[in-house]
């Protein structure tokens, strides 16, 4: 990708003036007045959140030496940086490279502030990781880390992880987990579409057609999605306490039940592992059980990507740097320093062969997950999806009525805003 912002009008300037002007820009070059006219050192500006500073500083040296550049690291929250890039980039204030959640990559590419790049021509990325950063057949990033939902289970209550939803139903019939007229054997935050999507997708529902790229085709009210909603409704109405329908409090409720030993298994994310450990729960972690129809619980696969600003001084150099960061060696280092699951397939294979139960479960579940649609229209799905699950679970509407109402709301929002 070649940058076209340099104008021919600079031709009349001397080489020294050119270097001075570039140095006044967004850290483009550093000039020196050493004897003989000085030397240039290209600066590559990297913006990362505070938790990635040490990692970049740890691995950047070999790249700096090989390319004769300085990698300058700036600390800024990832979401703040992505919000600012569309304005900071054209003003010459933005970084060359930063991180983006997968679901913001498509937006950045569509709005023109992320550069189109290329994926490395090797086997470092699985098919799902390639899809995370591609929009309209254009690549706008390279996957860095991955995450998804997993199953946590209390090993003091059950010795092995449930493998099927039939196993979870058996837990819900065990009087040991009864609380009044309800049962707490298995819990999931199914008022939240992020948590419930794996259930709906496993029965044949989907967000957008054409692998999440067609917002004119919303599949949350097809027969499969409605079957999944109906299944969740059975749990809300016939198994779980009423508090499980409280969309603001049910997460804390699930955590309290699990950490107090009243619940044997929960669907949650790896981000809860520390809290469970601090609470003294003797927990195990596994891939989410298969559904009663034999299909996988096709949860959203999420994570973060390294991306290049469309206003980067040298896009080719910036791409080389993110290709360097996603190498097996540097992905191993990221896992070692931050305990985040790397996207590199070879690094994931090492995790699968390790005794890191949490990360292994994440990799196993991620490989049967789907990328969350990374087009801007995805923002209009969440509220409608939450209302859909509450309306059905509470009995305010039938599963079909709730699904039809949600899809109508989502389609109307998309039509108004896009």
Q: What's the CATH topology label of the largest domain?
A: D-Maltodextrin-Binding Protein, domain 2
Binned strand content: 15-25%
The backbone outline, from C-alpha atoms, is globular
Give a count of the beta strands, DSSP E runs of length 2 or more. Answer: 16
Oligomer: single chain
CATH class membership of the largest domain: Alpha Beta
Q: Flag low-confidence runs.
A: 1-40
Q: Helix tally? A: 17
Question: In terms of topology, how is this protein built?
Answer:
Blueprint: H1 15-24, E1 29-30, E2 41-48, H2 53-67, E3 69-75, H3 78-88, E4 97-101, H4 102-110, H5 127-132, E5 134-135, E6 138-139, E7 142-147, E8 150-154, H6 165-172, E9 178-179, E10 182-183, E11 186-188, H7 193-202, H8 209-212, E12 214-218, H9 223-238, H10 250-259, E13 265-268, H11 273-278, E14 283-286, E15 300-308, H12 315-325, H13 328-338, H14 345-352, H15 357-366, E16 370-371, H16 382-394, H17 399-417
